[in-house]
Write a structure and sequence with these properties.
By secondary structure, the chain is mainly α. It folds into two domains: 2-82, Arc Repressor Mutant, subunit A (Orthogonal Bundle), CATH 1.10.10.10; 87-229, Four Helix Bundle (Hemerythrin (Met), subunit A) (Up-down Bundle), CATH 1.20.120. Helix content is 76%, strand content 4%. It is built from ten helices and three strands. The chain has helices at 2-33, 45-52, 56-68, 87-111, 114-131, 135-140, 142-157, 163-182, 188-206, 210-229; strands spanning 42-43, 72-75, 79-82. A hairpin with a 3-residue loop joins β2 and β3. α4 runs antiparallel to α10. The radius of gyration is 20 Å and the shape is globular. It starts with a helix and ends with a helix. The relative contact order is 0.12.
Amino acid sequence: MARGHLKSTDSSRSKTDAKDDRDVLTRLRTDIVSSVFAPETRLKFADMTKRYDVGIGTLREALSQLSSEGFVTVEAGKGFKVSPVSAEELIEITDHFISFETEAVRSAIKHGDEDWETNIVATHHRLSLIEGLPWDRRMQRHSEWVERHREFHEAIVAACEGRWLFRLRSIMFDQLDRYRFVTKRAPEGLGVKKHDEHRDIMNATLARDADLASTLIEHHFRDTSQSAIKLL
């Protein structure tokens, strides 16, 4: 009995540790993407363990994962720091993201069902509730817009077949978000334009027009990146 109880306790502890690892990875990635830690900021273990309330081992694992995703760099004897940004890198990230995203939307259009369509409409409605607000009120809800914007674009490709395709486009999406935060918020005119583009992307996707949806998605993200490049 005692041995079995010990085994159960160890298993519970392992599950808890795994959840903690995922939580700190998510929190740290979000803080880097949203520029809580600016590009090239050195990530000191003493400060980070206090901020995230985790041990050095857990933090090191999270940083190693983020290094493999391109969000942080590691230097021998100097530790980890947030990856730098550049116009050249943004162009490359944009190209890769568009390649993944257009392939994903074609797969989603081919395999998506009514539940997929319903979720697209729902997430677009939630996004448009903020995008339709006057600019000053929209900026007050900017953090909500960030989440709803992500949810909408994820809904568009959610039915794609291929876990790695979805995972890779998600990593690239995070990288694009990081550049958007680094270059600050979009000007008012661009926000109105993006509202219309989101509606057009939704309509083309629901119409199962893969060519049009792909073209609209490419223009949507490439235009945003070009605006950011001017500010880098």
